[in-house]
Amino acid sequence: MIFKDKIVWITGASSGIGEALAKAFNKEGAKVILSARNTLELKRVQESFINQHIPSAILPLDIQKYLELPKEVVKAIALFGKIDILINNAGISQRELAVDTPFEEDLKIIEIDLLGTIAITKALLPHFIKNGNSQIVVISSVMGKINTKYRTAYAAAKHGTVGYFESLRLELGNKVNVCNIMPGFIATNIVKNAVSKTYNPNNQNAAGMKPDEFAEIALKAIHAKKKNVYIGGMKEQFAMILKRISPSLFDWFIKDLKVV
Ligand SMILES: NC(=O)c1ccc[n+]([C@@H]2O[C@H](COP(=O)([O-])OP(=O)(O)OC[C@H]3O[C@@H](n4cnc5c(N)ncnc54)[C@H](OP(=O)(O)O)[C@@H]3O)[C@@H](O)[C@H]2O)c1
């Protein structure tokens, strides 16, 4: 039980990666606070916990309503008296060309994936700085370091997320650990829930890493207080390395790849 008695708040805990992380933290002894919009799904996840005797709580919220998040942070702290680890995971993706994406949808992606994530973190910062030995984890994406077609707003939001949290890490020093986890393709509902006019059930994510496997690796990284962690398959990792070595070679390699 490597997280025994730690209080862990997870956004986007009703599905996919957040659900798998919630179950894994409960298994490792943490008291988990589950947040997302869908209360019924949050209850389903909570009821699936293996350690039912360990207290957990549901705090429904909409991260897109970022001006209301400071109030949700007060409620979250009140549940168990403090928070030790915040997992910024809630997010939506995109499978649409920029020309076909209405601006309202660009805004939605940036509000949920970037602004909501920043707002919840900022509201918790004074609590974390006062307590020390706390952790901020952000589930960003390989799309925070590389880029493909059909992801303009998503890449913008995730590049922004990586930039924000890597800068924040420099400001916080050793007071609060900031762990940026960049998943590759993980088999969740992300494509089904993405901003898109069409849904391709044979998408690359469906063939990606299973969320439980992701969660197991992520928990080890969080426990080891890692700073930047990639979790996923070889080809996404190769793309990240190629982009770093030669951005122009990366553009040539990626421009005709099927990424929907
Ligand atoms: N799957 C991948 O391949 C992959 C790769 C790279 C990065 N990621 C990142 O991993 C994170 C989790 O995605 P996933 O793959 O697990 O997708 P998912 O299965 O679609 O889960 C997304 C989660 O975010 C929550 N969410 C969405 N909009 C929200 C809002 N306005 N307010 C509060 N919660 C909201 C959803 O809950 P409700 O609908 O109940 O609100 C759900 O719990 C995202 O940040 C995503 O960008 C995923």
CATH superfamily: NAD(P)-binding Rossmann-like Domain
The secondary structure category is alpha/beta
How many beta-strand segments? 7
Discrete helix count:
8
Name the overall outline: globular
**Helicity level, as a percent range?**
40-55%
Largest sheet at a glance?
A: 7 strands, parallel
| Uncertain stretches | none
Which architecture per CATH?
3-Layer(aba) Sandwich
Top CATH class: Alpha Beta
**Which range does the strand content fall in?**
5-15%
Bound ligands, each once: NADP nicotinamide-adenine-dinucleotide phosphate
Describe the structure.
45% of the residues lie in helices and 13% in strands. The chain has a seven-stranded parallel β-sheet, with helices on both faces. The longest helix has 29 residues, at 103-131. β5, α5 and β6 (176-183) form a beta-alpha-beta unit. The chain is of the alpha/beta class and 260 residues long. NADP nicotinamide-adenine-dinucleotide phosphate (NAP) binds next to α1.
